[in-house]
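F.,

This is the one I mentioned.
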C-alpha cells in the first residue's frame, strides 16, 4: 500500500469511527429522543447528562472514550508511528463534530481530543487542563476560560517536544502534538460559541428543551 493510500485510509477510518453518534444512540435507547431537537442541538455526552441523566451520560462518555482507544489502536497496528495516531485522532474529532450519520450535525469533538492527548502526551495536556482550572477559578466564567484554554493548549503541547512521559510506546517527543492541537483547537473555537454551549445555557435557563 502506498503512503498516499495509507493516509487516506487512516483519515477515512478515523472519520467513520468518530462520526458514530454515540450520544444520540444512547439518548434514543434511554429516552427515545433526538438530541438535535433538544437544547442547543449538540450531540454530546454533556447533553445526554442534561436531558437523560448521569447514567446515560456516563455510558455515552464511555462510548466516546472507547472510540478514541479504537482509533489509536488501529493507527498503531496499521502504521505504528506517531503521525498516524495524530491523523486518526484529528479525523475522528472532525467526524464527531460533523457526522455523516447525522447529516453534518454532531457534537463538540472534545472528548476524543482530550482522551487522545491524555494517552499520547499526558503531562503536557494535563498542564493545559490545570491552566484551564486556574482560569475558571480566577474568572468564574466558563466560556471565557474555555476559549482561552484553546489558545493555551497548543502552547502546552509544544512541551512534548522535549518532555513526554507517556503510556503508549509509539508516542515520542515531537512537534506533531502541537500541530494537531492547533488544528483541533482552531476548529473548536469556530464550533463553540456562547449560544451553542450546553453548560452556559443550562446555567442561564436550567434544564430545557426546544
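My design for it:
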Amino acid at each position: 500500500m502506498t503512503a498516499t493510500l495509507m493516509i487516506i485510509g487512516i483519515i477515512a477510518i478515523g472519520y467513520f469511527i468518530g462520526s458514530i453518534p454515540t450520544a444520540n444512540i444512547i439518548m434514543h435507547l434511554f429516552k427515545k429522543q433526538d438530541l438535535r431537537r433538544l437544547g442547543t442541538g449538540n450531540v454530546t455526552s454533556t447533553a445526554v447528562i442534561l436531558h437523560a441523566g448521569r447514567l446515560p451520560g456516563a455510558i455515552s462518555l464511555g462510548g466516546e472514550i472507547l472510540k478514541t482507544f479504537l482509533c489509536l489502536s488501529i493507527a498503531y497496528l496499521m502504521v505504528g508511528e506517531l503521525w498516524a495516531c495524530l491523523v486518526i485522532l484529528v479525523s475522528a474529532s472532525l467526524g464527531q463534530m460533523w457526522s455523516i450519520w447525522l447529516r453534518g450535525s454532531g457534537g463538540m469533538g472534545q472528548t476524543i481530543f482530550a482522551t487522545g492527548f491524555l494517552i499520547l502526551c499526558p503531562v503536557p495536556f494535563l498542564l493545559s487542563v490545570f491552566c484551564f482550572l486556574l482560569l475558571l477559578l480566577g474568572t468564574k466564567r466558563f466560556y471565557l476560560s474555555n476559549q482561552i484554554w484553546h489558545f493555551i493548549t497548543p502552547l502546552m503541547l509544544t512541551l512534548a517536544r522535549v518532555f513526554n512521559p507517556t503510556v503508549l510506546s509509539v508516542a515520542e517527543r515531537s512537534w506533531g502534538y502541537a500541530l494537531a492541537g492547533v488544528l483541533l483547537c482552531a476548529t473548536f473555537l469556530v464550533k463553540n460559541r456562547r449560544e451553542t454551549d450546553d453548560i452556559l445555557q443550562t446555567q442561564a435557563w436550567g434544564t430545557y428543551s426546544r
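Residues 204-210 have pLDDT under 50 and may be disordered.

Talk soon.
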